[in-house]
Backbone:
């Protein structure tokens, strides 16, 4: 699956990397990043969905 | 158009003191509620999002202009693009990578506060933990001596009393004394900023002051930042912790969940924050005429985002009035949303996690002291308990 963060929407709540640290990481400013670039392996799909749905800004999109 | 008119609500009459849930339920009867004294309350999540995501239309700057602070409150008293500059400069200093290394020192401090209380068997949690620990955190992060704690508690109480009374016309003795204390704090910070400039140090203030070029802050801006930290970072954490501990005291089954499984504490913290954001009203003022929920709002209309009400949307939170530490993804907006999202959220979370962790390790069972009632001071611009008297079995000193 492809996971993208809209950096115009992300304000750095940190919910994605807090809830799904295997998929998302923080950058130096505290904004979220997809750890593996964009493509997330199937084993982490559920974690990716969890992290995405916990974003208060709805900045994370998932393309299956 | 909105189907029915909700009528004007006098928010002073909400039963906030002893029934927060009931108060938010009342406010949620409509997404947009006209409030007595002028302006509107926005109480449903989608509509709150509409307001907070359009910062040029719903201005934070205009809302804080009303407060009449003599110094610029960096960055909430600004709208984009100026606000974006402050945000970009300040955000790195409050990121998890910078905040998390402070954990061992802050944990040591909270243990030192809790230990004597555990041996005593009772306390006023608000006064003895809530009011002092966030101040110690501020002093630690800003590189100030902990001996300044009681002085800072006095200063911030005076300043916060002043701001909560903003708009009231009577200038009585209390206000005079408040002005005096605010002036003392202002002079202390002015002196501090001047001393720290040009002196390298690990603390946030020294690092902010060492910025150069376009990012450099003037003395006035740096003092405004310190002032905002005092206004936004101290009583908010106290109030959130007080509310959280009240709910845990009143719900022993929920408390036992985190005692038995401390790994639940981060999600418990989020759930308690969802129910009780300590700054539940985000003020905005329209910068031009606009339509919101079918209602025409002229330029200059006050619009308040009611975060605690929005956090109770059935669409997003199943059974929203129930405490549930197993909600999974539960994107509450107690830290706000959009460009003005709370800059200190990572620090606030760290503070709350370690208080809940260290407290429950030492004091797993407690209840509200019979004969006392935790009450929310109301009406006021922020919400918090005046006191929270807890009683528990004394822990023998080792």
Residues:
């Amino acid at each position: 699956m492809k996971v993208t963060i809209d950096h115009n929407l992300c304000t750095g709540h940190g919910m994605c990397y807090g809830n799904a640290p295997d998929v998302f990481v923080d950058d130096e400013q505290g904004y979220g990043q997809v750890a593996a670039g964009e493509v997330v392996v199937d084993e982490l799909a559920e974690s990716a969905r969890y992290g995405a749905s916990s974003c208060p800004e709805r900045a994370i999109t998932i393309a299956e | 158009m909105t189907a029915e008119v909700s009528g004007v609500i006098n928010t002073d009459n909400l039963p906030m003191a002893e029934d927060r849930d009931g108060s938010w339920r009342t406010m949620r009867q409509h997404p947009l509620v006209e409030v007595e004294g002028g302006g509107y309350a926005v109480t449903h999540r989608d509509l709150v999002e509409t307001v907070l995501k359009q910062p040029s239309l719903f201005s934070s700057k205009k809302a804080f202009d009303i407060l009449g602070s003599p110094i610029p409150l960096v960055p909430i008293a600004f709208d984009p693009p100026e606000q974006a500059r402050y945000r970009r400069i300040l955000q790195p200093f409050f990121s998890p990578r910078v905040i998390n290394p402070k954990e061992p020192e802050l944990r040591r401090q909270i243990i030192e506060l809790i230990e004597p209380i555990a041996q005593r068997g009772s306390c006023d949690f608000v006064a003895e933990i809530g009011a002092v620990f966030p101040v110690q955190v501020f002093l630690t992060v800003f590189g100030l001596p902990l001996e300044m704690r009681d002085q800072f508690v006095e200063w911030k109480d005076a300043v916060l009393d002043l701001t909560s009374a903003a708009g009231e016309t009577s200038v009585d003795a209390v206000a005079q004394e408040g002005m005096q204390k605010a002036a003392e704090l202002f002079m202390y910070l002015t002196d501090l900023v001047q001393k720290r400039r040009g002196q390298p140090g690990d603390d946030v203030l020294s690092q902010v002051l060492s910025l150069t070029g376009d990012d450099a802050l003037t003395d006035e801006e740096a003092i405004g930042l310190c002032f905002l930290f005092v206004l936004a970072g101290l009583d908010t954490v106290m109030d959130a912790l007080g509310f959280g501990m009240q709910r845990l005291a009143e719900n022993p089954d929920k408390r036992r969940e985190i005692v038995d499984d401390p790994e639940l504490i981060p999600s418990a913290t989020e759930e308690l924050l969802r129910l009780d954001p300590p700054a539940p009203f985000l003020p905005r003022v329209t910068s031009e005429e606009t339509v919101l929920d079918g209602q025409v709002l002229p330029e200059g209309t006050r619009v308040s985002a009611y975060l605690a009400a929005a956090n109770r949307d059935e669409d997003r939170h199943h059974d929203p009035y129930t405490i549930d530490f197993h909600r999974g993804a539960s994107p509450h907006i107690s830290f706000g949303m959009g460009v003005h999202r709370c800059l200190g959220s990572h620090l606030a979370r760290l503070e709350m996690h370690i208080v809940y962790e260290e407290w429950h390790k030492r004091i797993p069972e407690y209840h509200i002291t019979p004969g006392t009632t935790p009450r929310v001071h109301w009406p006021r611009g922020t919400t918090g308990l005046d006191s929270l008297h807890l009683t528990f079995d004394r822990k023998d000193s080792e």
Notes: The mean pLDDT of chain A is 92.
